[in-house]
Amino acid sequence: MTEVTSNAPAEGARASELGPVARFLKATELDTRMLGMVGALLIIWIGFHILSNGLFLTPRNLWNLSVQSSSVAVMATGMVLVIVTRNIDLSVGSLLGFVGMIMGATQAVILPRIMGFPLGDPTIWIIALAAGLAVGLAIGAFQGFLIAYLAIPSFIVTLGGLLVWRGAAWWVTSGQTIAPMDATFRLMGGGPGGAIGASWSWIVGLVACAAVILMLLSGRAQRKRFKFPLRPVWAEVFLAVVACAVILGAVWVANSYPWPAGTVRRYAEANNITIPEGGLFIPHGIAVPVLMAITAGIIMTFITTRTRFGRYVFAIGGNPEAAELAGINTRWVTMKVFMLMGLLASFSAAISTARLNASTNAQGTLDELLVIAAAVIGGTSLAGGVGTVAGAMLGAVLMQSLQSGMVLLGVDTPLQNIVVGMVLVVAVWLDTLYRRRAQ
Predict the structure, then answer these.
(1) Residue 178 carries which DSSP code?
(2) DSSP readout, 183-242?
């Protein structure tokens, strides 16, 4: 401990030369780019709330926004690794549509009609999900092999995949929409049944707060162990309070959105519950697809920051030649990145298909642009070597917020696409400026 604090006077003198904002950022070690994204998101939310006459920042719209962002957010976590390695994947939207069609056909046609599974069989949704994940993983491996071992540019391979898998989705059912989905499978899409309710939501929120506090304590213990400089105690407390406030605030919003009146009436009739005169308030709670997205984000963050594979990915993105000379099997790592991308696209396909309660040929159209935009807006550099999973997920929420707000304002779809395109260009421009300043 004495070694850690031996240079405290010098550090204090240097800190006193900084402004209050700079001292605050230095003490808390907050990422300024992430803070800028949060600020931009808050400005967008407040702006749309004012323009929509108070409709945007309501529990209903925020709950729907979280569900709508889940599919893109899951894929964005994988797109970070793809772009970090100086590649691109333009096929994720078409891959989502194709895998969604496979899942839909498996549970609505192949298993019940061809293989004789009874409707409602508890294994139907498991088999359908497993089939979709296997197909997504295989497609990711195939595209990764072409890119890594045959040295075909990722832009060309995935551009071809965009066309191939979109056509394959049509070919599976000759253009027909497949519906409905298995009842258990539909839980992954949200809705009254696809949420965990108020009690479990508060439990999840409290567990998340406990995890944040333990993570901060563990990080501080590790710094002490390796004699690294420590954050001030007030900074640690500030980070814990803010993180817990955000988590519990999100839970409160999710629990403030009640079931629709018709759903409540049917539920009351089925369970012999008398509806009081003022109505029966049953909160949704956190939606299942949101939990899936958060889980994907946690796992991908662990992979990128705590595993050898994650370090290899960033090493390849920083300098491929140096990574090769260091003994990293760059081709195998690149192939695994695309396999992971295919697997995540399959999970997004499950969320999207369950939410629509159908598999359609238009499913996932232009999602590749939203995913790439989310990753880039979240701070992933197209030059490679730089990116965060949390930033990409925040970028997905930002992109979906733009679309949701424009829908509330009645903006036409062509103009929505114009705005999304402009935001993507501005994000890349800002990334270029940031890298120049860093150099």
Answers:
(1) B
(2) TTGGGGG-TTTTB-HHHHHHHHHHHHHHHHHHHHHHHHHHHHHTTPPPPPHHHHHHHHHH
pLDDT, tens digit (0-9, with 9 covering 90-100), for 34-47: 888 899 899 999 99
Task: Report how far residue 17's alpha carbon sits from residue 32's, in angstroms, rounded to the nearest whole number.
Answer: 19
Residues of the chain falling short of pLDDT 70: 1-18, 435, 438-439
User: How far is it, in rounded angstroms, from Cα 357 to Cα 346?
Assistant: 16
Q: What count of residues does the chain have? A: 439
Phi, psi at 100, each rounded to 5°: -60, -40
Dig out the tokens for 26 from the structure: 């230095």
Residue 19 DSSP SS3: coil
DSSP H helices, 29-91, are 32-51, 59-84
CB 51 within 8 A of CB 410: no
* pLDDT tens digits along 266-296: 888 888 888 888 788 999 999 999 999 999 9
Cα separation, 290 vs 394, whole angstroms: 13
**Greatest Cα-to-Cα distance within the chain, rounded to the nearest angstrom:** 77
